[in-house]
């Protein structure tokens, strides 16, 4: 019975319910009727139905079980505190999750101009890294244009999927294997389609800080951040809070956009972050006759990469050039990322190639404390 229940995972925490202490009673009588009690953290949590269905299915599938009696209850405050401690492990309460010694690679995606496809690229990279088996989190810090929930299917009918709160721990919704948190999830009952975030710098800083502290991401291989375009308060806050972050610059092939893209990368450098590459988006659109229409010109990505490369910082590579593609755009509009639904699409295929190259580079141990002391 326990082995069967080990297969039931909490969809938000992505760990077996047995390991999380959520299963409080398991017994089977002589007639083969299995009786299981499982406790949810809070009543009506979004994951509840799925957990209940999976528990019933797992119980019924265990060897020798002829009938399943599954009871779902809710934890007492004391049980919930014990649960939070188990989930957080020895990191303790409210400790920063992505400090300099963290093994998680933090990649902030920035752009100079708005509308160059930064959010689409970030979401596509996150989903394809998760598809390759990495544990991935995504922070949508684009306050003025939070579009990640829509791109990842978390914004149906004008309301954005809310994170689950277990006391002071916030569990991010999971989309296509990616733990996602967005400013758009914290607007209360307001309709995100017609709500503007007009917070000043300190409020934005606190919000990003809270995302990194109270949102429980667990052990991530990669945390991606979708920054607002340009060089504003958020970029500076992220630089201060995550100086070890690596930065990807998204730009279009238009040479005129290069200056502003380079400037956004230079702000990241000033806060100690490392620019690891440039992704050109909205490159040539393939025509039915096989020719290519360079709607936004050519060469912008290579130009930004070249201007960011120097002796001090080494070579900043152009990691890929993602073409314009109606299929890629439709995937974003419908919340079904093309990298999963339509991997042959030319834009999706190029993004998959870039994500595979990124996945191969782990975070090095250089400069980090290994947490061991000499005797
Ligand atoms: N390669 C592409 N081919 C076709 N459409 C694209 C491509 N990349 C992005 N788009 C579309 O362009 C629009 C803008 O993209 P997106 O929202 O990702 O840009 P952004 O840079 O994050 O914008 P902002 O930061 O200003 O919010 C979206 O409608 C998106 O679907």
UniProtKB/TrEMBL annotation:
GO terms for molecular function: 4 iron, 4 sulfur cluster binding; ATP binding; ATP hydrolysis activity; ATP-dependent FeS chaperone activity; metal ion binding. The keyword NADP does not apply. Homodimer. Transmembrane segments: none annotated. Belongs to the Mrp/NBP35 ATP-binding proteins family. Keywords: ATP-binding, Hydrolase, Iron, Iron-sulfur, Metal-binding, Nucleotide-binding. HAMAP family: Mrp_NBP35 (MF_02040). Gene3D superfamilies: Fe-S cluster assembly (FSCA), P-loop containing nucleotide triphosphate hydrolases. InterPro entries: FSCA_dom_sf (IPR034904), MIP18-like (IPR002744), Mrp/NBP35_ATP-bd (IPR019591), NUBPL-like (IPR044304), P-loop_NTPase (IPR027417), YlxH/NBP35 (IPR033756). ATP binds at residues 112-119. Residues 2-70 form the MIP18 family-like domain. This is Iron-sulfur cluster carrier protein. It comes from Leucobacter edaphi. Binds and transfers iron-sulfur (Fe-S) clusters to target apoproteins. Can hydrolyze ATP. Pfam families: FeS_assembly_P, ParA. It comes from the Bacteria. GO terms for biological process: iron-sulfur cluster assembly.
């Amino acid at each position: 019975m326990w082995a069967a229940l080990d297969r039931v995972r909490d969809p938000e925490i992505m760990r077996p319910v047995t390991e999380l202490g959520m299963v409080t009673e398991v017994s089977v009588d002589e007639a083969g009727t299995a009786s299981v009690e499982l406790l949810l953290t809070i009543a009506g949590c979004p994951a509840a139905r799925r957990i209940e269905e999976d528990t019933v299915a797992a119980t019924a599938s265990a060897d020798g079980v002829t009938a399943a009696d599954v009871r779902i209850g809710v934890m007492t405050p004391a049980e919930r505190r014990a649960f939070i401690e188990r989930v957080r492990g020895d990191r303790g309460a409210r400790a920063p999750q992505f400090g300099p010694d963290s093994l998680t690679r933090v990649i902030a995606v920035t752009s100079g101009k708005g509308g160059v496809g930064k959010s689409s690229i970030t979401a596509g990279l996150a989903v394809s890294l998760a598809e390759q088996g990495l544990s991935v989190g995504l922070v949508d810090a684009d306050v003025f244009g939070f579009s990640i929930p829509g791109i990842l299917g978390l914004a149906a009918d004008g309301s954005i999927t809310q994170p689950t709160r277990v006391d002071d721990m916030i569990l991010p919704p999971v989309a296509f294997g990616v733990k996602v948190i967005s400013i758009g999830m914290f607007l209360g009952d307001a309709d995100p389609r017609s709500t503007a975030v007009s917070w000043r710098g300190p409020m934005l800083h606190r919000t990003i800080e809270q995302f990194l502290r109270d949102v429980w991401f667990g052990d991530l291989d990669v945390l991606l951040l979708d920054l607002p375009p340009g060089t504003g308060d958020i970029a500076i806050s992220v630089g201060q809070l995550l100086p070890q972050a690596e930065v990807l610059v998204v730009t279009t092939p238009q040479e005129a956009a290069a200056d502003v893209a380079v400037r956004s990368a230079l702000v990241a450098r000033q806060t100690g972050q490392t620019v690891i590459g440039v992704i050109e988006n909205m490159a040539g659109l393939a025509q039915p006759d096989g020719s290519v229409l360079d709607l936004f010109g050519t060469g912008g990505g290579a130009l930004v990469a070249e201007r960011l490369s120097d002796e001090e910082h080494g070579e900043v590579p152009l990691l890929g050039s993602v073409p314009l593609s109606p299929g890629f755009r439709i995937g974003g509009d419908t919340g079904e990322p093309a990298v999963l639904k339509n991997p042959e699409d030319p834009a999706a295929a190029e993004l998959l190639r870039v994500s595979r190259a990124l996945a191969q580079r782990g975070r090095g141990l250089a400069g980090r404390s290994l947490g061991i002391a000499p005797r």
